[in-house]
Design a protein that fits this description.
Number of helices: 19
CATH architecture: Up-down Bundle
Strand content: under 5%
Helix content: over 70%
Order of helices and strands: HHHHHHHHHHHHHHHHHHH
Distance between the termini: 21 Å
Shape: globular
CATH class: Mainly Alpha
Structural class: mainly alpha
Number of domains: 1
């Protein structure tokens, strides 16, 4: 069902009730296959912004920061700035598309409207995989920070086992929260996001005087030279900028949270106002926090340790806090990481379950994924399935593989969303230049990222090799799976008809 973006919340709710009434009159159970308006509008601006920030400020700044800093050095600060610029361009496309096509399918719905159900189905499968990988990133980071926070140094060799246990605990608790209901999910996000923002802003406020002192001190070289290679030596400025751009491609998963807001568009009050505000607010707030955190973190520690010891890159920000704040800094930042990754996982689980619901509604996924709880009105089968697969990914892959796979998938997805905005620009009343720039920048970053992976493989990097193998396999499987599913659903429809 297509809705005009100018319809009021009251009109949409009335339609929802009429649809539900019609469904019951035809004998359809509340917990069975349901109408398009079964989801209820209970999320205000704060909740929508919390979902966006919850999914954005998570694994990126707490774990991928270390991976990107180990490569780009202090110029990773620019990497976050470049990422913010691209995210604004893509956010423009999302806000325009989400207002015209208000659907829990989010990005999947937009691609389907632009390119048809076959391409939309393939896109939806790939996006679904991207959600699973990003959920794994957040769960993995949560477990890693928790393990290193509670284990004494002589037991750190057991950190992988303990990390897996805590990651599983997060997945289980977030699943329960999402199963309870929409309003409870939104309230929990408000609290978690507020806590982690306070911790990150507090970290910046406390450490920035020491960082400024380090910059002035000629004997301390944490941010000097700004453009540096993995050994801390200054390359030429062109090479340094190129490395910063590669850093953006590595950490771009840190901006994927804005994509979750359109998934909640059927549940956001006053969408014409709150959807654009929450998308742009998410990108701007996250970018500012990322830049400040990267500046203070790298201004207080030697980034080369993240290149020489990949395990330390997993909890880079906590290590960066230690020289200035001591053991207390490690604990405080670790707590912030726990709240951040927990909210990121919670938001990603929320968004991915809604998209799965819509894909089942469109017969791209099996129809049982459309089943909604009679009591809480949430797609509980989708939530349980995503949580289960995420748990497997988290326990099997390592951080670098998860982060690289997630960034590459979302760069592909964001390029397609910008292209969708171009194709549908007359319907959504979008500017031509902004989506075009977003498309070109996203594709360029993807090319740079693949180039980086190939260079890493030449240096015998196992993680890069695994990513280069998995990425094309996933794309092919998603395309084949989409076509087969659609064909089977069409055949089933003909037989039942």
């Amino acid at each position: 069902m297509d809705e005009s973006p100018h319809e009021s919340t009251g009109q949409l709710e009335l339609k929802r009730k009429e649809d539900q009434s019609s469904s019951h009159s035809h004998g359809v159970s509340e917990t069975g296959i349901v109408s398009e308006r079964e989801l209820s509008r209970e999320l205000g601006f704060k909740e929508a912004l919390s979902i966006g920030l919850g999914g954005t400020i998570g694994g990126g700044v707490f774990s991928v920061l270390g991976i990107a800093a180990g490569f780009a050095g202090p110029a990773v600060i620019l990497s976050f700035a470049f990422g913010g610029v691209l995210a604004i361009l893509i956010g423009y496309s999302y806000s325009k598309l989400a207002l015209r096509f208000q659907s829990a399918g989010g990005s999947y719905t937009f691609a389907k409207e632009a390119f048809g159900k076959y391409f939309g189905g393939a896109f939806g499968w790939l996006l679904w995989t991207g959600y699973l990988v990003s959920c794994s990133l957040y769960a993995y980071t949560f477990g890693s920070f928790f393990a290193h926070m509670v284990l004494p140094e002589n037991l750190l060799h057991h950190s992988n086992l303990v990390s897996g246990v805590f990651a599983a605990v997060l997945i289980i608790l977030s699943t329960i929260i999402n199963l309870v209901g929409v309003k409870e999910t939104g309230k929990s996000q408000n609290i978690i996001v507020l806590i982690k923002v306070i911790i990150l802003v507090g970290f910046v406020a406390i450490t920035i005087p020491a960082v400024i002192k380090n910059i002035i001190d000629p004997n301390i070289t944490y941010l000097k030279p700004f453009f540096a290679d993995v050994d801390g030596k200054p390359p030429n400025i062109i090479t340094g900028l190129a490395m910063a751009v590669v850093g953006t491609s590595i950490l771009f998963v840190a901006f994927e949270g804005m994509e979750l807001i359109p998934n909640a568009s059927e549940e956001i009050q006053n969408p014409e106002k709150n959807i654009p505000r929450s998308i742009y607010g998410t990108v701007i707030i996250a970018t500012i926090i990322y830049i400040l955190v990267a500046f203070t973190a790298l201004g207080g520690t030697d980034y080369t340790i993240f290149a020489s010891d990949p395990e330390k890159a997993e909890y880079a920000l906590a290590i960066a806090a230690t020289p200035i704040l001591g053991a207390a800094g490690f604990i405080i930042v670790s707590i912030g990481a726990l709240f951040s990754t927990a909210s990121a996982f919670n938001a990603s689980l929320f968004g991915s379950s809604r998209m799965t619901y819509v894909m089942a509604r469109d017969r791209i996924f099996p129809r049982f994924f459309q089943t909604v709880s009679k009591k809480s009105r949430v797609p509980f089968i989708s939530i349980l399935t995503i949580s289960g697969i995420t748990l497997v990914f988290t326990l099997v892959l390592d951080l670098a593989q998860i982060a690289q796979l997630a960034s590459s998938i979302f760069l592909i997805l964001f390029a397609i969303i910008s292209l969708s905005s171009l194709v549908l620009r007359k319907k959504i009343k979008a500017n031509f230049i902004i989506p075009l720039l977003g498309f070109i920048m996203a594709l360029s970053l993807l090319g740079i990222f693949i180039w980086h992976l190939i260079n890493q493989v030449k240096q015998d990097d196992t993680n890069a090799r695994v990513t280069l193998i998995l990425l094309p396999i996933l794309i092919v499987v998603m395309i084949i799976g989409s076509i087969v599913t659609i064909k089977l659903q069409e055949r089933s429809k003909k037989i039942s008809g």
